[in-house]
Write a structure and sequence with these properties.
Layout (H helix, E strand, L loop, with lengths): L1 E3 L1 H14 L10 H9 L8 E2 L7 E10 L4 H14 L11 H5 L10 E11 L7 E2 L1 H9 L7 E7 L4 E2 L6 E9 L5 E8 L6 H4 L22 H19 L6 E2 L30 E2 L6 E2 L1 E2 L5 E2 L4 E3 L4 E3 L3
C-alpha cells in the first residue's frame, strides 16, 4: 500500500474549510445551529476487513540500496530498535509508547526486532526501480514466517511513483517457493521531493508556507525517512495483505497513520504540524525519544479505542 502524499490531504482540507464556512453577515438565528449540527465532525473509523494482521515477534531484514553514510544508517536503525524497546516503554513521549497503539488493533502486541542487514552500494538493479524490482530485492533474503523485508533507497535512486503520489509503500508478493513475502520501502527524498516527503522539515510545495521545523537528527532527508518509515510500518502490521484495517478503496487506502496525515501534535491543522517539543540548544523539533536518547518526530496514529488520531504530545 502506498503512503499517499500528505499534501493531497492538506489541499483537500483547505478546500473543505473554504467551502464550508457559514455566512456570518446575517442576524443570528436557529439556522446557524442547524448548520453546525450538519457539519459536526464525525469520528474517523478504519474498518477491519477480517484479514490477517502481523502480530507477535516480527523480524525486520533491512536492505540498504545505494549510498548511505554510517550516521544515516544509525539514525534509521535506532528508530527501528526504539519501536519495541523496553528501556523507556512507560514514558509517554517514547517511541515505544507510540508503537504500542498498534496493540489496540485486533490480535495484541507486535514486537519488531532488527534482523539481517544487506548493503547494496553498487546499485545491482540500477538507479531507477519499479515495484517488481522492490519485490525482487525483498526476495533476495530467504523468506520465513514472521519476517518483513524493509528496503531503503538512497537519495540518488528513483522509484516508481516516488514523489508523484507516495513517499513510501508496503506490499506483498510470493517468492519462487510460493511463500508470501511482505515488504516495505522508503526512499531518501532530499534530492527529489523534500517539500513533499520531508515536510515539516522542509518548506512545503503546496499550501501555507510556514517555516520548516528543524530536523532532530540534523538530516532533513533521513528525518523525513523516519516519518515515512513509521507510516509504512504501522500500515504494514495493521493491513499487511490488503484486508486489514483501512478506509477507502483497497488500491489507495487510508491506513493507521496515513489517515492522520500532517498531524504531529495537538492543535495541528493544514500546514501546521501541531504543538511539538523543541530542544533548546539546537531548536530541533521532536515528540518522541528512543534508544540512546535519540529524538524523533513521529506522526499521529489512529487509535481504535477512541476512533481518533492519537498524538504523543
Amino acid at each position: 500500500m502506498a503512503i499517499l502524499n500528505p499534501f493531497c490531504f492538506l489541499l483537500f482540507f483547505l478546500l473543505l474549510s473554504t467551502c464550508c464556512v457559514p455566512n456570518l453577515s446575517k442576524p443570528a438565528s436557529r439556522a446557524p445551529n442547524r448548520m453546525l449540527a450538519l457539519v459536526q465532525k464525525q469520528p474517523l473509523v478504519l474498518k477491519y476487513h477480517k484479514g490477517t494482521l502481523l502480530k507477535g515477534n516480527i523480524t525486520l531484514h533491512l536492505f540498504w540500496y545505494g549510498t548511505f553514510t554510517s550516521t544515516q544508517r544509525s539514525i534509521l536503525i535506532d528508530f527501528v530498535q526504539s519501536l519495541s524497546s523496553t528501556s523507556s516503554s512507560h514514558t509517554p513521549s517514547s517511541v515505544s509508547s507510540w508503537w504500542r497503539t498498534t496493540e489496540s488493533y485486533r490480535g495484541g502486541p507486535c514486537t519488531l526486532v532488527v534482523g539481517n542487514q544487506t548493503l547494496d552500494a553498487k546499485y545491482s538493479l540500477g538507479k531507477s526501480l519499479n515495484t517488481s524490482n522492490l519485490l525482487a530485492l525483498a526476495s533476495k533474503v530467504n523468506s520465513e514466517a514472521h519476517v518483513v523485508h524493509v528496503i531503503m533507497t538512497s537519495a540518488d535512486v528513483a522509484v516508481e511513483d516516488f514523489c508523484m503520489n507516495q513517499c513510501g509503500t508496503h506490499g506483498w508478493g510470493k517468492s519462487k517457493h510460493g511463500e508470501r513475502v511482505a515488504y516495505a520501502w522508503v526512499g531518501n527524498p532530499i534530492a527529489q521531493c523534500p517539500g513533499q516527503c520531508a515536510w515539516p522539515f522542509h518548506q512545503p510545495v503546496y499550501g501555507p508556507q510556514t517555516p520548516p521545523l528543524v530536523a532532530p537528527n540534523g538530516d532533513v532527508g533521513v528525518d523525513g525517512m523516519v516519518i515515512n518509515l513509521a507510516t509504512v510500518l504501522a500500515g504494514l502490521v495493521t493491513n499487511p495483505f490488503e484486508d486489514g484495517y483501512y478506509q477507502g478503496p483497497p488500491s489507495a487506502p487510508m491506513e493507521a497513520v496515513s489517515a492522520c496525515a500532517g498531524i504531529f501534535g495537538k492543535g495541528a491543522y493544514p500546514g501546521y504540524a501541531g504543538n511539538v517539543l523543541v530542544e533548546k540548544p539546537t531548536g530541533a523539533s521532536y515528540n518522541a525519544v528512543g534508544v540512546r536518547g535519540r529524538k524523533f518526530l513521529l506522526p499521529a496514529m489512529w487509535d481504535p479505542l477512541s476512533s481518533s488520531c492519537k498524538t504523543l504530545v
